[in-house]
Amino acid sequence: MPIASLSTAAREEVRRLLHGPCDSSFLSSLHKALSADAWSDAARGDAPGDHLLRRLGRLGDLLPAGDRLFEDPARLSTVHAWAAVADPSLCLAALVHHTLCLGSMVRLTDEPGERLKRRMEALRSGRVKGAYLITEAGQANSHLATRTRAEFDRDTGEFVLHTPDPQAAKFGSAGTLDVPQTAVVLARLVVDGEDRGVFAFVVDLTGDDGPLPGIEVSSPLGLDALPLDYVLVRFHHVRVPYADWLADGAGIGSDGGFHDPAGSSGRRLQHTLRVGQGLWATMPAVAAATARQSAVQAVNYARQRRTQSSLAPGAPLLAYRTQQRAVLGALADAFALTCAAGGARAVWTDSLAAPMAPAGEEAGAMGFTPWAAVSRPLAAYKAVAVRLAARVTADCQSRCGFSGHLDVNRLAAYHGFHHAFDAAGGDSQLVFYDIGRSLTEEAVTAGMAPPAPSATSPRWWPVTARRHQDGLTRHLSERLRAMDPSDPFDAWNPLLEDAGILGELYANALVAEDVARTVDGIHDHGLAQVLRPLAALHGVMAARRWSGSLLAHGTLRPADVQELTDVADELCDAIVPHLPLLTQAFAHPEDIVAAPLAATDYDTALRATLSWTRGGAR
């Protein structure tokens, strides 16, 4: 059944599911900005930095003005999701540029002055490239112990930004030295010798002629999995005007008194870092878009590729159950990520409207990272989204043979992007440790879980996952109570692996509930019938991955786990008739993807990318 056979209302539901409340005219403009023809100006011989700025400017033209950047979270997420499908490196540059650099200026300034507004507009329009410098390369957990200093000079009213030692050098994507770059730099504010917490400062790094005075930039650091202009940056007594301090309500009065509505250094760090919520809320949409495209290409390959096995000569790969479970499972996981993108966007929208917590309110506990304390659900969404997308893209690669590893088919780039992002933007494993530790310490007696429906229902996995989460939490709480509470490290050190499992399960349960909620909310009966087996297959495949833990804690019985394969096959049979509709809906336009694996005739499309040399020709 092609997508055109759906009613107008159903097609509208599909559009909103995939792209949020972005209208068709916006999507058309985004398509035009990202189409392959739009990048033809790279052939003019422009410097790489100028080319990147032009691309960032095209994306910025589709977003609200700089000081209103976060007024439309769906538009921001969709721009970056499409950019990831077109070019993961562009997406990463844009995420840093928009959500972290420009986003810090938006979120950490109540009333931006004219100077800051000009900087915002320069970033939005692509006249300047934005960077975000938070990580200090010489120590672990540097976000919790920033050592770069910004000392207030009372005589001039400026701040003096300085890197105290080589280990405090900042790591970031700031190596594009041939264009102007502006960074948001996190540094420890020192006033009259007193530590006032970590704040963000706007700092110009480079001009047309390279690094500015006092800015020291290393040679490039290569990272093929996530290619960008990575370098280390050090500051040597760089003067920063008072207006370039993103004070977030804090201030230094004419009488010299310092005030900060955050009330404590812990609360200040959380408020300074809340800009990360925009990145975390956007990543599920990015993961969903690349996972959908990867799954579509894997399904396309499996339908076209004929096997010569003696079992069934000439049968397409998709006829094999093993291939069905893999590629249709990838399609189901991509759908789950699509639902999670909507869930994350809703959480972020609510957080944007939330006021700053009162100064007297205790800051949330920060363990290995500050991220879960800043926003537990959004940090969890980021971590689970990039990890699931990395798995989907890797599975699709392996199921497409050598074709899955060819650069032209994009799967390697999609996998590299998400695999590397497991550590970037807040280390996912550390986030899971912190969430699991917090859930254990907050443990309360859970009520009786509702009975789980059949595993063919989209509701089965959310109920099962939450019941398993409750069991894991009780198990860890009992173990923790048996430990010596006088030494937190000795108490938690043997429990961290299980805490990480609990944190990851919490994130998976968020996604599972988003899937069930999304399917329940579909109004068109025919569309709901198409999506229900896809939703249920995500749950069954997730349960198969979690089977060891589910069995170990008695959440499922061996017979339940043994039945999952048969249930998966039953759901695959229900999905196969709807593959034309699903792949057509999930695929991005061909000129955005430009991958032979996405073509109707893959072999012909691949050969069209090649030139040939014949020996002996004269």
Structure description:
The protein is built from 22 helices and 13 strands. The chain folds into three domains: 122 residues; 122 residues, Beta Barrel (Butyryl-CoA Dehydrogenase, subunit A, domain 2); 318 residues, Up-down Bundle (Butyryl-CoA Dehydrogenase, subunit A, domain 3). Helices cover 52% and strands 10% of the residues. α8 packs parallel to α11, α9 packs across α17 and α9 packs across α19. The radius of gyration is 25 Å and the shape is globular. The longest helix has 33 residues. It has 618 residues and is α+β, with helices and mostly antiparallel strands. β5 and β6 form a beta hairpin. The strands form three sheets. Strands 1, 2, 3, 5, 6, 7, 10 and 11 form an eight-stranded mixed beta sheet that branches. About 1% of the residues have low confidence.
Output the CATH homologous superfamily of the largest domain. Butyryl-CoA Dehydrogenase, subunit A, domain 3
Strand fraction: 5-15%
Total domain units? 3
Poorly predicted regions are 359-363
Helix count, per DSSP? 22
CATH class of the largest domain: Mainly Alpha
State the shape. Answer: globular
Compute the average pLDDT: 91
How many strands? Answer: 13
